[in-house]
Automatic annotation (TrEMBL):
This is Type IV pilus assembly protein PilW. Pfam families: N_methyl. It comes from the Bacteria. The lineage of its organism: Bacteria, Pseudomonadati, Pseudomonadota, Gammaproteobacteria, Chromatiales.
Length: 284
């Protein structure tokens, strides 16, 4: 009787050790599962943020591409007075070092003093913001015409489309077109998107942007972008459709580019975002 009661008093030391060990294993397994789940959640959030950033960057690139080659007004209404015939919006696209997009950026409207003006000098009601020698397009607000020239004076409130001391502009045989009471002023803008080493990292990479309007400083847009791929559709026979595509750092000068495709590959994951934009302004 006594021996039977002794056997029924509770767990043995061995049983307690086994139960404790099993409990510890269960707790460790649960802890590892929770840690793994949290790590996966952090990775998913980081990936989602990177993808959101890549999509935003792609939106910025697409917006720039839609403006690529913009001449400031309808090509049939623009007169180029630059003595060399240079056009600051050409080539609209180049891919020699990333993706470079050229267009014209508006400085806003100004009033013309003594309008309409048919001479070289255009006196304005306030400063124009154009540097001497800089290409500039001046567009009649009425849309009746526009002119491309290099600023031939240092005056901050006068635009000069004359030849100047260095003959930077030609004098049109047919005379200068009259400029109305209000004009819009546009200057060249060049934007380059490229991938380089991330700021503060030795092995990571990011998508960067340089803009002429901000002095060419590097702007880090998206961390974790591994590569930027550019593909251009070329129309060889003038029918408005792409006959072939070129990728990478191929020379695009003088080619009729129908569309540009851009893809961003994210580092460390098989994630890729891409878009294709039809070019309108850059078509001949």
């Amino acid at each position: 009787m006594t021996a039977g009661l002794r056997r029924q008093r509770g767990f043995t030391l061995l049983g307690l050790l086994i139960a404790t060990g099993l409990g510890a294993i269960v707790l460790l397994t649960a802890g590892e599962s929770l840690l793994t789940a949290r790590q996966m959640e952090r990775i998913d959030r980081s990936t989602a943020r990177n993808l959101d950033g890549a999509r935003l960057a792609l939106t910025l690139i697409a917006g720039s591409l839609r403006q690529a080659g913009y001449p400031g007004c309808h090509p049939d209404r623009r007169r180029n007075l630059v003595s060399t015939g240079e056009d600051p919006a050409v080539p609209a696209i180049s891919t020699s070092n990333g993706l470079t997009i050229r267009t014209l950026r508006s400085l806003g409207q100004r009033g013309i003093v003594g309008a309409p003006v048919t001479g070289e000098s255009l006196s304005l009601d306030r400063a124009h913001g154009v540097e001497p020698g800089q290409p500039v397009v001046v567009v009649n607000a009425s849309g009746s015409g526009c002119v491309l020239f290099r600023q031939a004076t240092t005056a901050i409130d006068t635009l000069d489309r004359g030849p100047g001391a260095a003959a930077i502009n030609r004098v049109p045989a047919e005379g200068y077109r009259p400029m109305g009471e209000r004009v819009e002023i546009l200057v060249p803008e060049r934007t380059t998107f490229f991938v380089d080493t991330a700021v503060g990292s030795e092995d990571g990479s990011s998508l960067f942007r340089r803009r002429e309007s901000t002095g060419g400083d590097r702007e880090e847009l998206v961390v974790g972008v591994q590569s930027l791929t550019v593909e251009a559709g070329i129309d060889d026979n003038g029918d408005g459709y792409a006959d072939r595509t070129v990728t990478g750092a191929a020379g695009l000068d003088g080619l009729d580019i129908v569309f540009v495709g851009v893809a961003l590959q994210m580092a460390g994951a098989n994630q890729r975002v891409a878009t294709t934009i039809a070019l309108r302004n850059a078509r001949p």
